[in-house]
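Annex B. Sample input.
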Amino acid sequence: MPDPSQLLTPVHRYCVAAAAERYHVPVSLLYGILATEDTRVGQKVKDANGSYDMGPMGINSLWLPVLAHYGITRSEVLDNGCQNVAVGAWILAHKLKDHQGNTMAHPRAFWRHVGDYNSAIPHWNHQYRQRVAEFAQRDFYRPLERVSGGGHP
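Annex B, continued. Sample output.
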């Protein structure tokens, strides 16, 4: 029998809604990031800089020391889908913090902060935020929002 601590825990729409609500980020952005990253629980993707992205939200391994300070382990980020989404929502909230304080900020500034979730390098930031925006606007995410009670109709 496998060790229960080694089992993979999938992402449920309720996890996404709860993370969006807890960290005050639009649920559609979380779905957009999930679709853009297009990775699974337990999956690692190596990056050119030697780090690696983990799980559905593509949490970069460079975040592990910060997360350890909060008692969050690599295994939880990699193998627990709900924890992965919660960590991703927390990171996104930190990236958006500068924008949220300025209600008059230009929408491009907002999307630049969304792109910062993946990269601060302008070329990669631009490509990433365009993909997230495209996925976040797709109608097939809206029914999940209504069912889960998160986000906006």
